[in-house]
Records
---
Amino acid sequence: MKSLLFGRFLLLLPWVLIVIIVLDIDSSRPPPPALAPRGGGGSGGARPAAGRASPPQAPEAALPTIYAITPTYSRPVQKAELTRLANTFRQVARLHWILVEDAAARSELVSRFVAGAGLPCTHLHVPTPRRYKRPGLPRATEQRNAGLAWLRQRHQHLPPPQAGVLFFADDDNTYSLELFQEMRTTRKVSVWPVGLVGGRRYERPVVENGKVVGWYTGWRADRPFAIDMAGFAVSLQVILSHPKAVFKRRGSQPGMQESDFLKQITTVEELEPKANNCTKVLVWHTRTEKVNLANEPKYHLDTVSIEV
């Protein structure tokens, strides 16, 4: 009797093993994809979730390039401020950075910074003559003019119209990304408010019926253009059609460089108010606190050399 049962067990064992293997293979297969619901989709595919739909955007290649001219000079906070500015610029589509050092040659610090910044960047240098470094005289004149000269030289042989916008981006300011969206549609010269400037929380062009009619400012409201350097952008075509428009040294007073420059290319009546008719602050003249280096040793004592 035992031999009969053992024989039947051996006969059934292969079939039991086959069934177990088949069930194991079937359970390891991925589930079939869910069928898209039938509906009014033009392509017959599944509709995207309502919360994930993104608004149509213009192709990046179709956007006008923003050229940001930034004068810079050697000081303890230079790399820190350039880092902050680069972090902003990386988030702006089609931006070309023109970084101009106040120096007789390109410094190693800024050269290394530009190489690792991950931005389309042109690194220039021009020194400010010693006689113009006295307190009370306009600053960064030579550097801004060097940026303008590079821009004109690069585009002089290209046919018009050439889409682009020029913006003077000092490295001690803080910029909202919304500002670059606003300035990109500049037709000639656009303007907007600037925060923390002129001894006030903000300064701005006063706008009525879409036109600039005056200036809310804490210093010399009689200026032709009572505006900060960070408060305007200029169409590239305007820069190219006014090849002699530069920042002047002779006869220019501190705080008047913006007016002296803008008088050469536009009028107040032609200004284009941005930032909700100049009622939103999108750039701040923050400046970096003066660094306290009272404990810095006179001679380098560390065992390694660290670039700050």
---
Amino acid sequence: MEEYTEPESLGQQEACMDDLPDPVLIQILASLPATELVHICRLVCLQWKALVDGASLWVFKCQQEGLAREDQVEEDRDNWMLFYFLSKRKRNLLKNVFGEDDFEAWEEVQSGGDGWKVEEIPGDNGFDFPEDENVKKYFVTSYEWCRKAQVINLQAEGYWEEMMDTLQPSIVVKDW
């Protein structure tokens, strides 16, 4: 068996991740999915943890994905990581909000009078939906108290425990 010997240097040095300047490393890290940055990359070493926890990476990531203008700087926000995650997840978590699938995903909690009904727009009210022209149906209630409910599993929607515990994002509930 032949023994391996190191070839003589050709004037080139091997590059090591430790040798990369932070701005270059930030550009590399910003290309990774955000959840991997938080769950995996923070655990690699203290340098990566500091970069992932710092604002520069998240400002750059927000700029890359069109969530922030190119002229925005770290001082523009208190917590760029929180801004990133909340901006990416800013969507209505309610299912079947306009009644396209009748009452699927909704629990009828209380249905007084004639109860709940789904109407086609413009329906008996005689006007179009004010915010979205793609809405074709909507929920209407009777002349007595009616309630409907929906349980939303935030973890199933991509909000992990650590984010909810440490960042504690505001949760806004709206129904038209």
---
Amino acid sequence: MSSSVPSAATVEGNADALTEIHRDIIETHILAKLDPQSLFTTSCVSSKLHEICQGENLWKQICKSIWPSTNNPSIADIISSFPSGHRSFFTDSFPTLHHNFFTDGHRKTTELVSAVDIHYQNKPLFAKIISSNTDSEAFLDAPFWIDLLENETLKLPGKFDTEDETFLSRLGKDLNVSWILIDPSERMAANMSSLRAVLVRQHWVTGDIKIRYVKVLAGGRKGKANELVQCKIEVECVRRVENGELHVGQVSLKIEDMDKKYLSGRDSLVILQDAMESGERKKGREGEEKEMYEKYLGKRRERREKLQKIERRLEMVDRATRISISLAMLFLLFGSLVS
């Protein structure tokens, strides 16, 4: 009885027949449309497909389809310097970053490049490249803060009924932000955004909406090596009540510690470079990033409550000390009067 499972020779023969098609067609219309796992599986079918799947042009198309910002010539030049070009960049940037341990691998760099892409309902809405000079005192000593939009706003497609109870949850799913930080000198990159929004909140008076994407990273400042920080991307949306429109007015990247203080460029650079170099790239299970964010907020509350207890104790000690000093002075005064 013959087996219905094709032999390895048959599979490779079929794969070789596939490769008789023009390489550009295979790359553009077939392989570029596969997800990364399927592409990896395809590369294992035959030696010829493996060669095609390693091609720089294929990975360039894949990067462009996911992150339109990489079509920018300046970014393409930077990516070309990576060990395996666009394939290395993709490996660094997809799907997202998990950084649980600080390894203190800080290296000096003079530039950080942001490749930012905003998608709405899985369609590209906006792409921009921002270069930050990290060698200046203005960057190193000031709070780390990168603004995406300066004098422009983005209108989200369609009309929005803000009275709909499902409006905020749908907005959090429909609007996605990818913020890839690139270190050109070290030829490494990482996506600093969560795959989904971890917070969507509407102001009860103005109706304006704040959407937050967060990566919780291991801290690395002097004396605070075990501290966690949040790399926070905030999107602020302004609603137009009269016509049901929603406009994105501000998008910014900041790094905040557990005391709710923004880190300086100097401290942020140490953490970001370590995250790029030693962080793990994985998708994780659905909802994991939000859980990590909520745990971070829980630890921050515990920290604040602990500090408040310490402050109350110190205040009580201070009050008791003042009372003791006052009583001592009264006794001395009384003793001098009696004598």
---
Amino acid sequence: MPRGQTSKLHTHEKRHQAQGGIQHQSSVQATVAKEKAFPSLAPPPFGVLTHRKPAARSHSTLKGSERAPSTKPTDVSPTRSHKGANRKTEKKPSSSRAPLTIVQSQGDPLTRATGILVQFLMHMYKRKKPITKANMLKIVNKKYKNRFLEILRRASFNLEVVFGVDLKEVDSTKHSYILVSKMDLPNNGTISRGRGFPKTGLLMNLLGVIFMKGNCATEENIWEFLNKMRVFAGKRHFIFGEPKKLITQDLVKLKYLEYRQVPNSDPARYEFLWGPRAHAETSKMKVLEFWAKINHTVPSAFHSWYEEALRDEEERVKAMVTRQAETGATASECSRECLAAPPTPNEVEAGSSYCG
């Protein structure tokens, strides 16, 4: 090729690479802006009571996350995966958008054992019965007893992210445990006496959506998130009952959520905020820790929200110190007045003369 044509070709290639670099940079900037607006997070596995795979995550959003053991899907045959004909038609299920299917949960014996243990623990929690390792071992199949710690860890994960309940060991010698709700909802979190499962996990998620949407989420934001968890308005859910009534009436009446009309909206639109009891019983940092656990990462991975949560923690500490100082000053004044020597009979008698 003549030298002149070669020079023109190199110039054209450099220009093309430069344009490609600019386009790539613009694409990255757009992606980062979108992630800052609202991150693509894995909703908790409310569809089934099973352990799930870690969510698919980007290095920019979930950097430094810890990988949790995953269950192997049973509905994909390894003998067919290498065939070109099936490679185009078979699509890997997105674990970041939906919980594991029932078929997948049945394929993993440890997952089945985990589900049974979760049901047992929730039964004991609702009845307010003590939980011991010996009782749990009776529930787990004998051939999996050597994997008990892993099953217990999986069950604890499910209890936390689905129901908002923490499993805590209270006696290391007797191996006894208690289940503690992350928030003080009525009737051990079920809201309605003697009915359903704890709703704390759902509430923690709603508070997270509100927090990450600038402390005020539209009704559309809320349902978009809930639909990803297969929770739909007007469709009864086996854990949450009728979800629209739960979040727009029950949790509002209990003052965990505030549900109000968007000012000057026509037709009327509504939005959600944290209610006073949510501010009293949890914090932005605790909600962020909850979301981080679901996504198998750490709170600091959500940079801007983590900084806001830290500021919130500092303000809470300052407010608590101020209250304690005011309480101490009041108690000091009260003690001086209450501990003063009682009047003598002569003083009482002298004082009574003013009434004449």
